[in-house]
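Fig. S4 source data, part A: sequence.
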Amino acid sequence: MVKHDVKDIGLAGQGKLRIEWAEMEMPVLRSIKEQFSKGKPLKGMRMAACLHVTTETANLMETLKAGGAEVALCASNPLSTQDDVAASLVKNSDIPVFAIKGEDNDTYYKHIMDLLSFAPHLTMDDGADVVSVLHKERQDLLSNVIAGTEETTTGVIRLRAMAEKGVLRYPIIAVNDALTKHLFDNRYGTGQSTMDGILRATNRLIAGAVFVVCGYGWCGRGVAMRARGMGARVVVTEINPLKALEATMDGYDVMPVMDAAKIGNIFVTVTGNINVISEKCFGVMNDGAIVCNSGHFNAEIELKALTEMAVGRREIRPFVEEFTLPNKRRIYVLGEGRLINLASAEGHPSSVMDMSFANQALCSAYAVTKHEGLKNTVYSVPEEIDREIAKLKLKSMGIKIDKLTKAQSDYLKSWEMGT
């Protein structure tokens, strides 16, 4: 059996069935897998993937393997692993996996080092931790790496900072920036799965609650949309005046986070920054306030400060931790402040991850053929890949669209023709 560190290999049968269930709703990735099986565009490539170990990710790994790659996988978040899926990938697909749901911080980074021991040619990241560890601790392996991809807003922010400082040693394609990723995955995927995670963890009624969304990027838009659809009064906090104006025009209350802290019942952070909900916020929150995060890292909530403030702490439900403050008010943190849609739920629906992972697969193949002409910086997904994925998705849904006539095409290219 391939190298691995998973919770229980005996869960492989259950995981295989769930992987098949997800695959049914991933027609774009399925068609790419068929192409890859014939053309083998990744032949000879060792790929190190640090992603959420879910049923959808399993289908991506099998697609990459079909394309000829030697793939290894570790978790990009300590609480996002689906243990049965990890077991199935090892036993049924012969893919090395290093991931256990609930692993501590030391194990998390040990698993990244296990992943890097395969000396990858390509990296596939969800938060840029593999790239960071490579550059800090395994620089000896950098000469092997020809390119990488990054899935998240948070990761792209980190990688662009590296590129601007001139320390990034190989090109990265920002899959997150693809329109077929962030317009759908971030908005519809995060919106639905975040609400799913909150409901599974708390079983609280959303209707009538004051629901605070910190950040109005595509993820924030999705969460706000779904919360309003369930009857909440939605409040948005922002630092960007354009996004704040957009949220206002979309019909939400917009205010500073300290003002929202005084009235909110449920808080969700989706910013990619640190200490968005801070010690000061905890000091004014109502008794019973629920705090969670759907940004990549739990640093969005100042958990250390809350822990130091608390005079009592206990787990009152799975994925729900109660912090009692000196004034007897109780604050509830969901899923240790980590991605609540993966901590207590199953992450994004397969049909939306279909497009995101199609981008990962096609961008990996693109990187193999084009890497010699790329600089050590962060690139957007080529427009032709974005459009091809959109076309494949529409085709799978049985939707047809119009094409330009020759006259229309000529008109768009001309400047002589006016009104």
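Fig. S4 source data, part B ends here. The radius of gyration is 22 Å.
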